[in-house]
Amino acid sequence: MDKHEFASNEEIQYHVTHLVDGVEYVQKTTVTQHLNSDLRTALGINPVSWPFAHEKDVFKMMNEGTLYNEVYIGHWWPSETTQGYQDFHVFDKSDDNGKWSRTVNTETDETGTYHSTWLNRVAPGTETVTSTFWIEGKKLSGPNDFDGNTSFWTTSPADVKVEWFDNGVLADTEEFTIAPIGGAYFVATPDVSKVGDKVKFQLIPASGKTVKSAWWSFDATNHLQTWNSRNIDPAFFYPRWAEGYQSPQVKITYTDGSTETVTRENYIRIISDRIPRSRFFKNIDY
Question: Which fold has domain 205-271?
Answer without folding.
Answer: Immunoglobulin-like (2.60.40)
